[in-house]
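User: Show me a protein chain along with its predicted structure.
Assistant: Here is one chain, sequence first, then structure tokens.
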Amino acid sequence: MVFGRRRQETVKVEMITEPEISVSGLLRPIAGRMAREVFRNYLLSGEQMSKVEVVFVGNETITRLNRRHRGMDSATDVLAFRLDGEDFPQPEPCPCHQQLTGSVVICPEQVASVPGYECSSRLWRLAFVACHGLLHLAGWEHFDDDSFFCMMQSTEEIMEHVFPARR
């Protein structure tokens, strides 16, 4: 993938946390850079993404969302929601605000237990799963080992470009 290819749109990233969740303020600019990189170079459709939420939640909330939207009664590290489906109808466009196009929901407690990245910093692990969720918003899916490997490889590539102070 060639980085730096430019499109005219910008991506606004809004970060939201549940009251009991604490995340570093350093993640906001990193998430913004990742979102711009993902949507410039990895967007699978021709559409534009303009505003993305990165939401940090606890185990109870992520389990409830996972059960409701994926039928899995367990916690997970990250979920991504395109806000163009039946569950999330788009509001009428407002000329004064960017339209929300997706949400990446992250459970920091689950991120801490992602295998293979135990030696990574907390900030790097959170950025990694945020990047993975952003790729899902861009249309990427992993249904088997090959597609999962490809998606993880792309996540690593973006992380090396956006967050070179790895781990």
